[in-house]
Structure formats: structure tokens, C-alpha cells
Amino acid sequence: MALGATLDRLYDRYPSLLVDRVDEHEPGRRLVAVKNVTVNEECFQGHYPGEPLLPAVLTIEALAQAATVMLSPEVPDGLSPRVSLRGVDGAKFRRRVVPGDQLRLEVELDRQEGPLAWVRATASVDDAVVAQASLVLHVRLPRVEVSPSARVHPAARLGQGCVVGHGAQIGPHVVVGKRCRIGASSILDGHTTLGDDNVVFPFASIGLPPQDLKYAGEPTRLVIGDGNTFREFVTIHRGTAGGGGLTQIGDRNLFMAYAHVAHDCHVGHGTIFGNAATLGGHVEVGDFATISAYSGVHQFCRIGSHAFIGGYSVVTKDALPFARSVGNRASVYGLNSIGLKRRGFSTDRIAQLRRAFRYLLQSKLNRTQALEQIQADATLTSEDVAYLVRFIQSATRGVTLRRGGSRATDMHDE
After folding, report:
1. Distance (Å, rounded) from C-alpha 74 to C-alpha 66?
2. Catalytic hit among 173, 191, 263, 266
3. Is 8 annotated in the active site?
4. Of 107, 265, 322, 355, which is least packed with CB atoms within 10 Å of its CB?
């Protein structure tokens, strides 16, 4: 989210809004904002005529508003917590603030105990401190809102700020974190745990029994992290006893409409599943992987971190991390360089991976020889290359190393 958009988390509006811009933001820890003090401020009409001076209490209020932004997580509209000022300790005002000044507001969390937060606050103009204080703020999360037509079992646990839509069903063993939105006619069931700030769209099905003939009703689990989005008709099934009993999904993943995650899968953080992308059972998906629309991944396969699986692909062997794998059956079409650049990979990290891929895909070496060359190359020192090597060495179903567009088959050990 852009820094400017963070101001939307404030309930204050003109003429009470005293923060104009956010320059630095470490959510929940630190924030630097700016207040431009102009002669048009309404307070200057009477404080003091002929010699306008910003009231010290408004400087404190500006700092409190900056602290509110810092303490308010990025959540869906209407679910922002209400932050109120409860105390000001050790306030000191060191110089005047007048029209034309640009007030720099810096706030940093000192500690937080339950709903109370202690914040160190400093206001300055041209690097000179004009005011400082310790603020005590109360963070009140919104109440749970459940549609009258929803069916929520009395034993289900809903975190503060949750909204449950029309006709949704939530079973007795479901635990939902704070500020989640459960869409109309969606279903959450089984021993399912959702973290904070998840959004479940209408008609999604989360935590129902696995589609496995060996499943006999044992109490297996589904555990979901924070900040995920499950679009319409997404299906996520809990685990089986034979597969460890756990399906697990990390944080900040996007599952587009009709995507499916089968039993005992483990999905990392920051992944994207296109429309109708499907995982068979026991699949592992690394962080920041993308599985495009209508692609299918065979059971027990692995998708490496930062991998890109093209649309309508069929993956029957492990898909290389950092690579673009496309087709039925999937072939490797080089490094996922665009995705890596978007993730902030440096030029050197990408260059090292590119050289490692040349050994694997273009050198005419078999797999064992290519890995030996990669490990012997003194220029390939990054952790990315080391992870690539470990991924290939630990494969149990084989790894797709066939180049797209060529007649070459998968590389095998001699």
C-alpha cells in the first residue's frame, strides 16, 4: 500500500485532520509523518490575532493522529480499530510553531500491554525539536458483526472485528482471528484455524473433509495464516491421517476463484493461485510462487519458491524454484527474471541464478555433473543457488529439467 493511502486509517477529517503526509512507516513500530502549518488553520483566527501561534495541544493531537496510523493495521474498509488518547506524560514544548512551518511528526512504539500502547512522540521543525512527550493510547477493535441469517456454532471462536455475511456457516471447531471477513454463503468447518485479516469471499469452502477414499472421519486439521484472500468458490480441504493430518497455508496468499488446495498440502507465503489452479494431495508450494489459471499439480509434487507455472500447465514432477515452467507436461522456459525483479532481487542474485541455470539446462551435462559444476563454481555463492541445489538433490519424484521448445528429455543421472 502507498504511504499516502495509510491516512485512510484515520477517522479524523477536515478540519480535525492534522496529518498531511506519511513519509516512513514500519507498521506497528514506527512512523514519520508531516503536518504543513498554514495561515489558513482555523485556530489562528483567535490564537493569537496578529501573532498566530499553533496551540501546543494541537501539536500533541497531531502526534496522536500519527500514532493512530502507526498502530492501525492494513485491514478492509470499516474494520480499522478506534485509537483514542488516554494520557500524555512528560510533555515538553521547546519552541513556537507558526504559519509556514513544516511539522515533522515522529512516533515510535515503546511497549504495548493489551489494548494500551505507550508511544514515544517527537515533533520537530527544520531538525529542531519543538515538542516531545510519551503518549498513552487505547486501541479498541470493532465488535464482531454476524448476519442474522448466518449459522455460527456457539462453540466457534471469532476474533474482534470479524464480519460474517449472509447465510455463511461456521462449524464448532473453527477458530477465526481478528478482523476477518467471512463472505455470504461461504462455509468454514472442521478443525480449522484462520489467522488475522483473512478475507473469505462468497461461496468459498474452507476446512471441509478431504476428497480421499481412505479418510474415515478422523479429526484432522487446516491451519491458515494471516492476510490471505480466498475468492469465490475456492475449496481448501483439511488433512488426512496418512499425510500427517495437516493442511497448512501461510500468510498473504491470493487464491482466485475456483482454486483448489487438496488434503495435506503445505503452501508458503505470498503465493498467487490463478483461477481454477489445482493442487493434488501432499503438494508443497514455496514462498512467492505463482500457479497460473487452470494449471494442475500432481500429488506429492513440489513447487519451488519464486517459481512461475504458466496457465493450463500440468506439473507431474517437482517444478524448479526461480524458473518458468509451462506446458503439458511442463517444461522449463528459463529464469523467472521478471518475477524476481518485482520481488527486489539484485542484479547479482539474478546473474548467479542465470549462470546456474545454464549449467542445468544448456551445458549438455547430466544432472549430477551439472550440480557438481555449480557447487565447484566459485562465483556461485548466493543462498539462492544453494537452495536451488538442495531442492534438486532432495527431489523424490524427479525434477523437470527439460527445456521448453526443444526435444530434450528430462536430465537423469548416468
Report:
1. 15
2. 263
3. no
4. 355
The single-letter DSSP state of residue 411 is: P
199 is written with which cell numbers?
478475507
- Active-site pick, 171, 225, 239, 281: 281
263 classed as catalytic: yes
Q: Is 281 annotated as catalytic?
A: yes
Question: How far is residue 11 from each of residues 68, 83, 87, 179, 344, measured CA to CA in Å?
Answer: 9, 9, 19, 17, 34
Q: CA-to-CA distance for 291 and 305, rounded, in angstroms?
A: 11
> In terms of CATH architecture, what is 3-140?
Roll (3.10)
What is the architecture, at CATH level 2, of domain 165-342?
3 Solenoid (2.160)
List the chain pLDDT tens, one digit each, 414 residues.
Answer: 445 556 767 777 777 899 999 999 998 899 999 999 998 888 888 888 888 999 999 999 999 999 999 988 765 555 567 889 999 999 999 999 999 999 999 999 999 998 899 999 999 999 999 999 999 999 887 778 999 999 999 999 999 889 999 999 999 999 999 989 999 999 999 999 999 999 999 999 999 999 999 999 999 999 999 999 999 999 999 999 999 999 999 999 999 999 999 999 999 999 999 999 999 999 999 999 999 999 999 999 999 999 999 999 999 999 999 999 999 999 999 999 999 999 999 999 999 999 999 999 999 899 999 999 999 999 999 999 999 999 999 999 999 999 986 443 343 333
Choice among 189, 197, 251, 264 that is catalytic: 264
